[in-house]
Amino acid sequence: MAALLELKNVTKVYTRGVLSRASTTALNDVSLTLAENEPTIVTVAGESGSGKTTLAMLLLGFIAPSAGQILYQGQDISRLGGAARMAFRREVQAVFQDPFAVFNPFYTVDHLLTVPIKKFKLATSAKQARERMEEALTAVGLRPEDILGRFPHQLSGGQRQRINVARALVLKPKLLVADEPVSMVDASLRANILETLRGLQKNHGVSIIYITHDLTTAFHIAKSIIVLYRGSVMEAGDVDAVIKHPQHPYTRLLIDSIPWPDLNRRWGETEIKAKEMEQSAQGSGCKFLSRCPFAMNQCVTPAPLFRMSEHQAASCYLYEQYPQVHSDQLTELLPV
Ligand code: ADP
Ligand code: MG
Q1: Can you give the pTM of this predicted structure?
Q2: What residues pack around ion ligand 2 (CB closer than 5 A)?
Q3: Atom of ligand 1 nearest to the CA of 63
Q4: How far apart are CA 167 and CA 96, in angstroms?
Q5: Which of 203, 211, 214, 324 is the most exposed place for a label (fewest CB within 10 A)?
């Protein structure tokens, strides 16, 4: 499997202020490989603050890891030169949450789409540039004749977000990093835009990292899922398995329609116990410890991933009867 993009034991720590020692581990030892020749959609899910945007920025090369490596076609992205750097910039594209952010109100849609075409010299004539724009707009379900020549205020939110995707698409990327791409779009349009993203994977061979705090959307679009909590992988695997049968207490909490099994313990007691344990662990235990109704003494050391089936593993001692998976092998859990 030739790797397009590979995270190797990537950790990102943010430090605030020069004098204060306060720091946040936004991402903790994540390894992930995206294959070049097998386009897939991976969801990265978790609550706000779980490190999703940090992961996106790392994948895009916008920020550097504090530890570990990010490789693009086998080369460290911090050391890409000339042509390889241009290829990376073109082939790995972002779609962000805010469909308004990239629009300058004084320019038409044409301008927005022309800039990347010019920057990467993707057309040799105005006619060819136009064809590329039309192709990209059509691929995201827009009719070029309705869109070209318009100003941002003449477009709906849904159209704007599609144009955002089209803007990435004119570059014929291999990977799209979509950070909450539908969270600011009307609910009625979400499924439709997600369907469009799926079409890009199926028909245009684009892999997608789909980042969301909303697990219901994950279900519609992705094949596999990685659940993050405070920078650590809590659960990963086949999206159907993880959403229908979540194993990690955190994933179960996210999918709150699923009732909690009775452990013959009263809530109050476990909560106090979990809090005490977290204090004694001094932040080095399981990240979910203080909220976990199943907290056990061993949770002061974070659990490795335990694999309960081919395409599902959870980082939780409740599953220690299953084989361990090293964090480097996360990718093996994800069906393509
Ligand atoms: P998410 O996208 O899942 O909400 P983020 O990646 O934005 O999560 O943030 C993860 C953690 O890192 C949070 O605790 C956040 O406060 C912190 N963080 C994010 N960006 C910065 C930054 N530039 N400086 C300091 N802390 C940051
Ligand atoms: Mg975010």
Answers
A1: 0.91
A2: 52-53
A3: 23
A4: 12
A5: 203
